[in-house]
Specification:
The chain has 747 residues and is α/β, with parallel strands linked by helices. It has 25 helices and 22 strands. α15 packs antiparallel against α16. The chain is elongated.
């Protein structure tokens, strides 16, 4: 599917009167040629460095492959660093033609672009001509801009042309290079008052700002305007018309500047020329400062009316408060959609479309509960469209436009605005107007600023929620095992039993008790006992596959609560799963002792539910019976000695262990010894001896270069018996075991 021809426009403060006229001209001409446009606008006036950085992120969104050319309007930017940044960015990244509206700007050169500008020379000529013909001025000074500016020289040439045409002498000392700012106007005023320069009939200033500085400083010294001196400006700014005295100024047609820029870009792209869709001339706005009668200000009534209407809309609602109080992204999206009317024009609803696209990491929180480093450059690889046809949806940020956002074969303009809080970028907004050129107002960028503030507030709220929840978990979770504390059991019991009763389910409960911890603590220390408890808790919780809640109900007990849709063998399988996992742990842990965990379970239908203490006591009674049936009192009395013996077997596998030697150590008959040993550790003594020697052999194979004969001898085996036993138990020879492990290690 082929895309529409599209041009990009980079401009600042698009809602300003002059800039709005440029955009209007661009769009009228673009639409007449069947082109669409995308406007990338920032609002960086009076921003601090972080705010400007957040605004400038929008330029990194541009996918130059989606455009046929660009129009850059540098003089609309206040921050010269931003102008330099955009200029370098276009030179480096853009392979499409760029038309620059402006010849130079504060020392920045745009020689890499095709530049276009208004007829400064001819237009300033008209201002000087007015002073000569209307007010009979003979002595005129020209205050122009910086000497290194082409525009300054163009306007100075207009002064020369008018003086020459009138036959008046041209003194090059009467052409003064300033700074296009009020300071140079104030300096000239001081020079005139102090006599450094003679007082002329008139001063023609090459822009309105210098005229302000000149007028205001002369007035402070008692110089009357226009009685003592006549002053004119250039730019046609609204401020000039409201100034006291009103400044006579020339207002170029920025509308035509926009039209001509598109015509120039079109000729570069296609190699053909095109006619302007309409014509409009600049206008000389005479006023008190030149000696003419005061004139009503010529302003854009549309802009003023809409500005007042916008301000009223913002003041008449609680949008900011509503957005700042959203609790999640879904609430935020719903709340935002209720306020689109603030910047959409009800006359064009069917031809307007808005979307907000957020980075996928706009509010990612790290495992510590704190936000990761803020995104201050570019956008995530994918972004989330909040208002696609299917609700939230991801699409590549390289596409810029969400799916189904644009209509085929219908010219449109899309205004891209950054959504950020200071330097932190959240995403961007797209306002698309189909066939409309005059609907954009300052309410849209103001709205986007509110979105950035609201998202920052939502991030803070989410962070606080995360930290509060983690604090709650730290209070309700057992620090050692990670299971819930016993104090939480009533709360979970009420929640689960309510669900069981509501849906007529079955309550499944399970009680697990770790036995022998006291003996382990006495023989190996408290730390060893704590580690065992942690590992057993992890095993128990790892067996909870159906959302069971695990509560550490006592020092060595864990109480599991869950529910099922109907009575089944779920809890029996949970009990079996825990038992088998504990047995596997004992077989593979390499510990010189066995960890015994007793498990009992039950299922209680909804209609038989009672208090948790009654059910717990019933399970506890069953558990005690199970323990007593498992170990006789005699076996419990022998546990300490047997545990120490087993520890010695695993600690010194190189010794010549045998069942007879073990019996002699404990002073017991062989049959009695083997029965007690099997009952306590669930394995035979001979098996433990063999297992300890094989573990020792595997350690020597992996961590030494000893020969197999030496290893066999150190484990108390002759070579042939060692080889047969190792292969039988490990399903591979000792050489294969050593070689396979080493080959699997990274270099």
């Amino acid at each position: 599917m082929s895309r529409n021809m599209r041009i990009g426009v980079i401009i600042n403060r698009v809602y300003r009167d002059m800039n709005h006229n440029i955009i209007t001209g661009i769009l009228r001409q673009a639409y007449s040629l069947g082109y669409s446009a995308a406007v990338f606008s920032t609002e960086e006036e009076n921003q601090d460095e972080m705010g400007t950085q957040g605004e400038n992120t929008i330029f990194s969104l541009i996918n130059f492959d989606l455009f046929d050319g660009f129009i850059f309007v540098p003089f609309t930017f206040i921050n010269l660093n931003t102008v330099e940044f955009i200029t370098n960015y276009l030179i480096e990244k853009c392979t499409k033609p760029v038309v620059c509206i402006g010849i130079d700007y504060a020392g920045n050169s745009f020689d890499k672009f095709s530049c276009i500008w208004q007829e400064d020379r001819a237009e300033l000529y008209k201002v000087v001509e007015h002073l000569i013909q209307k007010h009979n001025c003979k002595s005129i000074i020209c205050l122009t801009g910086p000497e290194n500016s082409i525009i300054s020289h163009e306007r100075a040439d207009g002064y020369r042309d008018a003086m020459k045409k009138a036959g008046l002498p041209i003194n090059e000392n009467d052409i003064i290079y300033g700074d296009f700012w009020i300071k140079s106007g104030a300096k000239l005023a001081n020079d005139l008052v102090t006599g450094i320069r003679r007082m002329p009939d008139a001063v023609v200033c090459a822009n309105d700002s210098m005229a302000f500085g000149l007028c205001d400083t002369l007035k402070k010294h008692g110089v009357k305007i226009p009685d003592d001196i006549r002053i004119t400006g250039y730019d046609g700014s609204t401020e000039a018309q409201y100034h006291i005295p009103g400044i006579c100024t020339y207002k170029p047609s920025y509308f035509m500047l926009g039209i001509n820029s598109v015509c120039r870009l079109y000729s570069i792209i296609t190699g053909n020329t095109c006619k302007s869709c309409c014509e409009e001339d600049g206008i000389l706005l005479v006023n008190t400062s030149c000696g003419c009668e005061s004139q009503p200000p010529v302003v854009n009534s549309y802009m003023i009316t809409n500005s007042e209407y916008i301000e009223q809309r913002f003041l008449d609602n609680n949008m900011s408060n509503r957005l700042l109080n959203t609790n999640n992204l879904n609430d935020f999206a719903v709340a935002v959609s209720h306020w689109f009317f603030i910047f959409l024009n009800e006359n064009y609803y069917e031809n307007e479309k808005i979307d907000i696209c957020l980075c996928t990491d706009w509010d990612v929180v790290d495992s510590d509960g704190l936000s990761h480093n803020s995104r201050t450059e570019g956008y995530s690889e994918d972004v989330i469209s909040l208002y696609s046809n299917d609700g939230f949806s991801k699409f590549p940020s390289n596409n810029m436009f969400p799916p189904d956002h644009l209509r085929e074969n219908e010219p449109s303009v899309s205004f891209f605005a950054p959504i950020h809080y200071e330097e932190r970028g959240f995403g961007y907004a797209i306002l698309t107007l189909y066939g409309i050129v005059d609907s954009f107002t300052m309410s849209y960028p103001r709205f986007c600023k509110d979105l950035g503030n609201s998202l920052e507030c939502l991030c803070i709220r989410n962070r606080l929620k995360s930290m509060t929840y983690r604090a709650f978990l730290s209070e309700t979770r057992d620090a050692l095992t990670g299971a819930y504390r016993a104090a939480t059991l009533p709360q979970f019991w009420d929640e689960i039993t309510k669900k069981v009763k509501l849906y007529d389910e079955t309550l499944n409960i399970c009680l697990c008790s770790v036995s022998g911890l006291q003996q382990i603590n006495e023989a190996y220390g408290q730390v060893e006992g704590d580690q065992i408890l942690m590992q057993i808790a992890a095993i128990i919780m790892g067996c909870c596959h159906n959302g069971e809640i695990c509560v550490r109900s006592a020092g060595n007990e864990f109480f599991l609560i869950g529910s099922a849709g109907k009575t089944s063998s779920d809890e029996a399988s949970l009990e079996s799963s825990i038992t088998s996992q504990i047995e596997r742990y004992n077989q593979t842990s390499g510990k010189p002792y066995r960890v015994n965990v007793y498990v009992v379970s039950d299922s209680v239908p909804a209609q038989l539910l009672t208090e948790h203490k009654i059910i717990y006591d019933k399970l506890k009674e069953t558990l005690i019976k199970k323990k007593n049936n498992r170990h006789s009192r005699a076996e419990q009395a022998y546990y300490g000695n047997f545990s120490k013996l087993r520890h010695d077997i695993y600690s010194h596998p190189e010794e010549d262990w045998s069942v007879n030697i073990c019996c002699d150590k404990l002073g017991m008959s062989m049959s009695h010894f083997q029965r007690i040993y099997k009952s306590i550790f669930n394995t035979s003594c001979m098996k433990d001896i063999q297992s300890s020697k094989l573990c020792h052999a595997k350690n020597l194979l992996l961590h030494t270069d000893e020969t197999l004969q030496s290893i066999a001898a150190r484990c108390g085996y002759d070579y042939s018996h060692f080889m047969r036993l190792f292969k039988k138990e490990e399903k591979m020879t000792p050489t294969e075991y050593r070689s396979g492990f080493r080959h699997s290690q990274p270099d």
